[in-house]
Specification:
This protein is α+β, with helices and mostly antiparallel strands. It contains nine helices and ten strands. The strands form four sheets. It has a four-stranded antiparallel β-sheet with strand order 1-2-4-3, with helices on one face. Strands 5-6 form a two-stranded antiparallel sheet. Strands 7-10 form a two-stranded antiparallel ribbon. The longest helix has 20 residues. The model has no long low-confidence stretch (mean pLDDT 95).
């Protein structure tokens, strides 16, 4: 018998829960992206950074992690989260697009592919690996193509590669009695404004408090707010691939907003 008390490979596909022999509740995931997620969770555990669940065991297509108890959002937790997120980003990455140590180049975000291929500069890498691979989902790609053509002027001041969660929408931010925990990463080296823009995409409780605390620790470059639509392009394009319909139109509108902001 496994020291876990069960065989994770026999768990149903997707997410399930189990209890270890010592009584600890755990989350079991069976998914083709399990290896990348496990590597990402380990990489995101940095001193002073947000809490992430401990990976108790992992193989190519499954992982077992400690379960996080649920709690209510509070301003105090949001303020601490903002500071800790700044610490996570400051931990850095070898390059834009670099995968976590031991993580695959061909990773996943949601249910679709995401390639972690390192690039020399953020603008060119972002276009090549975070926009163009998903353009087929957009019926009117013209505005997005215009963003690609003008990316150097739209990108803002140069920044070093940050250590990103990579899929930081509100559903992957867990509020617990001990503060904020991050789950389900698509971790890679990227631009820190991408994580922040994704927090705003589907709404996060006390987001203004998170951003203010972040900015106190790691001041953001001028014009960040105007660049939010640019950084939201990637998750919107991913959603267009997965769900189509309105997300494709939202991606085109985000491209138009990014162009107007300049």
């Amino acid at each position: 018998m496994s020291p876990l008390g069960f065989d994770p490979a026999a768990a149903p596909p997707g997410v399930s829960r189990a209890v270890l022999p010592d009584g600890r509740p755990v989350v079991v995931k069976r998914d083709v992206g399990a290896a990348a997620e496990a590597a990402g969770l380990r990489w995101l555990r940095v001193p002073g950074g947000p809490a992430v669940p401990e990976v108790l065991a992992a193989e190519a297509d499954w992982l077992v992690e400690a379960e996080v108890p649920a709690g209510a959002p509070t301003r105090a937790a949001a303020e601490e989260f903002g500071r800790r997120l700044a610490a996570l980003h400051a931990a850095g990455a070898p390059a834009f697009g670099s995968p976590p140590p031991g993580g695959p180049v061909d990773a996943r975000i949601g249910g679709t592919a995401m390639r972690n291929e390192p690039g020399p500069t953020w603008p060119t890498w972002f276009v090549e690996h975070r926009i163009r691979p998903y353009l087929h989902a957009v019926p009117d790609p013209g505005p997005v193509e215009d963003v690609c053509a003008r990316i150097e002027e739209l990108a803002g001041p140069p920044e070093p590669p940050a250590r990103l969660h990579g899929d930081l929408w509100s559903g992957n931010v867990l509020w617990s009695p001990s503060g904020v925990w991050l789950i389900d990463p698509a971790a890679h080296g990227g631009h820190r404004e991408t994580d922040l823009a994704m927090l705003a995409l589907f709404g996060l409780p006390h987001l203004d408090t998170v951003l203010a605390a972040y900015d106190e620790v790691a001041p953001l470059a001028d014009g960040r707010a105007a660049r939010v639509p640019l950084h939201q392009l990637f998750p919107l394009l991913v959603h267009a691939v997965l769900f189509g319909g309105g997300y494709a139109h939202q991606a085109v509108e985000a491209a138009r907003q990014a162009l107007r902001a300049r």
